[in-house]
Amino acid sequence: MKQLIKDLNKINFNLDDFIVVCIGTQRAYLDSVGPLIGSKLQELYPNAIIIGQLNDNCHALSLESKLKFIQRHYSNKKILAIDACCTKNKQKLGTIEFQRGPISPGAGVGKQLPSVGDYCIKVFTVDKERQFLLEDGILAEYYDNHMFYKIVRESVNDIVNSINQAISNHK
């Protein structure tokens, strides 16, 4: 968490100059990190521009239209994108990574979607070796739900707390 606060401070993160785009859907448990963070941030900062919440997801089907909306109405703002990611490295599960540059949502599951963000936060929630495809083409995972509940809960708390700290430091 300390490293994420440092990274956010380096880019002078604040909610006046940034839009936060929280990618994912509550319909897939391990992809719910983005909407959970978005909902939590919107509660804490009701005047901030937060795209992607539990009641209005930013996912594969809505991503392009949401990006067009941002370009039309907020082209002068920087974008911090947040998304859950796949990893082949089991040691990365549950870790959070900040990166300059965009994230490629869906890349870990073979989707080609528009890249998002001037900066991004990745939450590694999915072990690529434990994924499988259902008959209808939906990607599923076989996991210990308790372990991943812990990862999701801790990741949401760490990212929200880091953003709060960065905003406090910026004032």
Summarize this structure briefly.
By secondary structure, the protein is of the alpha/beta class.
Walk me through the structure.
- There is one protein chain.
- By secondary structure, this protein is α/β, with parallel strands linked by helices.
- The chain is 35% helix and 22% strand.
- The chain is built from 4 helices and 7 strands, in the order H-E-H-E-H-E-E-E-E-E-H.
- The protein has a 5-stranded mixed beta sheet with strand order 2-1-3-5-4. A two-stranded antiparallel sheet has the order 6-7.
- The longest helix has 26 residues, at 145-170.
Topology:
Layout: H1 2-10, E1 18-22, H2 33-44, E2 50-51, H3 63-74, E3 78-87, E4 96-100, E5 119-127, E6 131-133, E7 139-141, H4 145-170
Helix pairs in contact: 1-4, 2-4
